[in-house]
């Protein structure tokens, strides 16, 4: 059961109120800003791993296996690791710079990068300068070209590591990692209530966001409660395209969820496109 609890550092405590206000003002502009239309290409790699191709860069989320042969060297490659679980992290990502030198990493701080690990992973001094170790509740900025900035906001996972909220040219991509409502019928009420409170605290950060593409767990191991986390996210945000993930090679759970949601919202308008993720290597071209 992938539901251990790890306390992750939050925003630095220097002038916390000032930092919070600054972030709130900036993102209440950004989160409702409508950018220019763009076509993006999404490739499902495996489990929670996705490759997103934009006009000037690629974003690789939680890679642990899959084919990466279709990446062009003409664009920057940005690698995101939400946490250290084996199904979200593969040390081979640190060899990608050999083929794609224009690369930047955002690695959750729970991924061990001790001197021993650095040697094992083959991280050179030059490569280490391309690695940003991230903590929850912080913001990072990356310039692609002079007029294109990527804003990366991290949220605290309810399991391990972080989730990513990435804004580029007025478009927002959300990758949950293991930030999810991990409630289980076999757990006691105190555990599930605590989990719900922690989950709701992070959902307050994304409340009222307009998210163009979201990658969110839909885990059949939760049995009758499998839908609660995705329901909660969809109830408080506006999402155009949502890609279920973390379904442990049981993609049929997606159709089950779509049927359930159609019954729940019968007669009501819902604009979200719940994508049928069926097999590794599957690709979609989406206008956002």
List the helices and strands and how they pair.
Layout: H1 16-30, E1 39-46, E2 49-53, E3 57-61, E4 76-81, E5 103-108, H2 115-121, H3 125-128, E6 131-134, E7 139-145, E8 148-156, E9 162-168, E10 171-175, H4 189-206, E11 210-217, H5 228-236, E12 238-245, H6 252-264, E13 273-274, E14 283-287
Q: What Rg do the Cα atoms give?
A: 18 Å
Distance between the termini: 35 Å
CATH topology: Metallo-beta-lactamase, Chain A
Secondary structure: helix percent: 10-25%
| Number of H/I helices | 6
The share of residues in extended strands comes to 25-35%
Could you give me the name of the CATH homologous superfamily?
Ribonuclease Z/Hydroxyacylglutathione hydrolase-like
Count of β-strands: 14
What best-fitting shape do the alpha-carbon axes yield?
A: globular
Q: What sequence of helices (H) and strands (E) makes up the elements?
A: HEEEEEHHEEEEEHEHEHEE
Number of domains: 1
CATH architecture: 4-Layer Sandwich
Walk me through the structure.
It is a single chain. By secondary structure, the protein is α/β, with parallel strands linked by helices. It has one domain (16-287): Metallo-beta-lactamase, Chain A (4-Layer Sandwich), CATH 3.60.15. The protein has six helices and 14 strands. It has helices at residues 16-30, 115-121, 125-128, 189-206, 228-236, 252-264; strands at residues 39-46, 49-53, 57-61, 76-81, 103-108, 131-134, 139-145, 148-156, 162-168, 171-175, 210-217, 238-245, 273-274, 283-287. The radius of gyration is 18 Å and the shape is globular. 37% of the residues are buried.
């Amino acid at each position: 059961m992938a539901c251990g609890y790890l306390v992750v550092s939050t925003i630095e405590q220097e002038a916390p109120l000032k930092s919070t206000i600054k972030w709130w003002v900036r993102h209440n502009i950004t989160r409702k800003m409508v950018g220019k239309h763009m076509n993006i290409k999404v490739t499902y790699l495996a489990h929670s791993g996705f490759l997103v191709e934009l006009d000037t860069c690629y974003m690789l989320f939680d890679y642990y296996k899959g084919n990466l042969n279709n990446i062009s060297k003409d664009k920057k490659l940005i690698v995101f690791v939400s946490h250290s679980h084996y199904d979200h992290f593969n040390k081979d990502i640190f060899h990608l710079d050999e083929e794609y030198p224009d690369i930047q990493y955002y690695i959750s701080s729970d991924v061990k990068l001790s001197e021993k690990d650095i040697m094992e992973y083959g991280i050179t001094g030059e490569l280490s300068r391309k690695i940003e170790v991230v903590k929850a509740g912080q913001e990072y900025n990356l310039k692609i070209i002079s007029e294109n900035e990527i804003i990366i906001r991290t949220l605290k996972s309810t399991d391990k590591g972080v989730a990513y909220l990435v804004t580029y040219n007025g478009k927002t991509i959300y990758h949950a990692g293991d930030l999810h409502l991990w409630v289980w019928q076999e757990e006691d009420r105190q555990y599930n209530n605590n989990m719900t409170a922690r989950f709701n605290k992070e959902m307050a950060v994304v409340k009222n966001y307009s998210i163009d593409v979201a990658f969110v767990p839909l885990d059949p191991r939760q049995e009758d409660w499998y839908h609660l986390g995705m329901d909660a996210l969809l109830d408080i945000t506006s999402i155009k395209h949502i890609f279920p993930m973390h379904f442990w090679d049981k993609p049929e759970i997606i159709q089950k969820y779509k049927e359930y949601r159609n019954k729940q919202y019968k007669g009501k308008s819902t604009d979200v496109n719940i994508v049928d993720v069926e097999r590794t290597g599957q690709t979609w071209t989406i206008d956002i």
